[in-house]
Amino acid sequence: MPDPQTLLHVFPTFAVGGSQMRFAALANCFGGEFRHLVVAMDGRKDCSANLRHDLDICYPQIVLRQRDTLGNVWRFRQFLKSVKPDRLLTYNWGSIECAIANWPGLVAHVHTEDGFGPEEVDEQLMRRVLTRRYALSHSTVVLPSRALCRIASEIWKLDPASLRHIPNGIDCNRFGAHHVTPLGCAGLGPVIGTVAALRPEKNLGRLLQAFRRVRAAMPCRLLIAGDGPERVKLEHAALMLGIAEDVTFAGHIVETERVYKAMSLFALSSDTEQMPTAVLEAMAAGLPVVSTDVGDVAQMVAPENRPYLTPLDVPALAAAMLKLLSGTEATAIGAANRVVVRERYDQEKMFAAYKAVFSGSA
Questions:
Q1: 5-169+346-359 and 172-344 share one CATH topology?
Q2: CA 159/CA 146 separation, integer angstroms
Q3: CA-CA distance, 145 to 31, in Å (whole number)?
Q4: Cα of 197 vs its chain's centroid, Å
Q5: How confident is the model at residue 18 (pLDDT cuts 50, 70, 90)?
Q6: How far apart (Å, rounded) are the C-alpha atoms in residues 193 and 262?
Q7: What is the fold, at CATH topology level, of the domain defined by 5-169+346-359?
Q8: Is 3.40.630.30 the CATH classification of the domain at 172-344?
Q9: pLDDT tier, 1 (very low <50, low <70, confident <90, very high otherwise)
Q10: Of 139, 240, 253, 140, which Cα lies nearest the Cα of 195?
Q11: What is the DSSP letter of 155?
Q12: Over 90: is that where the pLDDT of 67 sits?
């Protein structure tokens, strides 16, 4: 039996996030078929707790300094020459220096782009467009959303033949299980909930303001699961808005299926997304979704759910949540979402597509 291929993964951070959790699911599924080297550019390795203990995986240390692009490119290129992996996999803009270090192709390279931070919400930054255009011109580029595929082809001017559209997938059985115990949430009334990294682009301040409007019209609660740099600011905002007693900041929860089980509806208030995994998880849990109309969300949810996608606007978001909570459609919409996610976004399809990319056969 041949030795497993060595894959060198470079993440801006290996803290818990969408791309990191997807990698964990893939690595756990593939088991011993690949050997993984994971470089976390900021040194954080929180997501390692989600990996199987029997995986062949290690975390090499390499010094990468902020605002030292040329030095980082040189150091990583030397590291790449010494390690000689079968394939280099970089993730998102934060790892682009390592993609540049490989140019024009020391080893086969796969770059995955999941979306953009707040600085690229309104438009693509030309400096980044040009960097991606040239740094990724010899690479396979994986994109989870059709919106990103259009950007990569039409704006970055990458060869469409090098692009791979691989939608995110989830364990539908896990999130649709009936025996799950819901997470506790203090207060009275239905629960509006979200699962998100507490970062600026998620704009959870918008959700807090919208929740205040809904709460003024009917008893309800807000459950926010996740952690991040915005947490203290958001907790203070809840106090200032006078809603803190009905808002639960649950922090990072490993068993997120318990979070969805506690919800009456799932809310997404982001300024920018592409294909948010949390929306798929909520759909698998049989929840209706109220969301800002960003990325591929409109294509992800069931047709019955699409009227509850809103502009980036507090009143619109609040009105959609209030209409769902006070109406009779929520259960039927949640059931339709469950059907769609099982048909289109089960993780087995994602596993097969990524296995081909990891092994170099796609």
A1: yes
A2: 15
A3: 26
A4: 9
A5: confident
A6: 8
A7: Rossmann fold (3.40.50)
A8: no
A9: low
A10: 253
A11: T
A12: no
